[in-house]
Amino acid sequence: MNQVISAKNAPEALGPYSHAILAGNTLYLSGQLGLDPKSGTLPQGVDAQAKQSLENIGAVLSAAGMTYANVVKTTIFLADMGDFAAINAIYAGYFKGNCPARSCVQAAALPKGALFEMEAIAVK
């Protein structure tokens, strides 16, 4: 049976979707923008948005009883692939040791004019 995971410390979904779905031992996390969970606004700059997005991912993982160490795959969406190196440095601060598999693509546009979004898959 699939279980909906909702994190109190992550921003509300912008549409009809859940923060994550736990299917068996696998957690499928929806994309997280760098929205501040309290104000619902995006901070200025890709670095700040990436850090907040990763914090939001962490909140959803925690709500499911997991950590960044449980993440096996991430997908990053960037508004500008020129931000790739800066994002790698931030990302490395959250994933240490055995890093998850990852894809990174440039998107034509992201919701709310965001510069960064990330989704993930984690396994217990």
TrEMBL record:
Coiled coil: none annotated. GO terms for molecular function: deaminase activity. InterPro entries: RidA (IPR006056), RutC-like_sf (IPR035959), YjgF/YER057c/UK114 (IPR006175). GO terms for cellular component: cytosol. Pfam families: Ribonuc_L-PSP (PF01042). Belongs to the RutC family. This is RidA family protein.
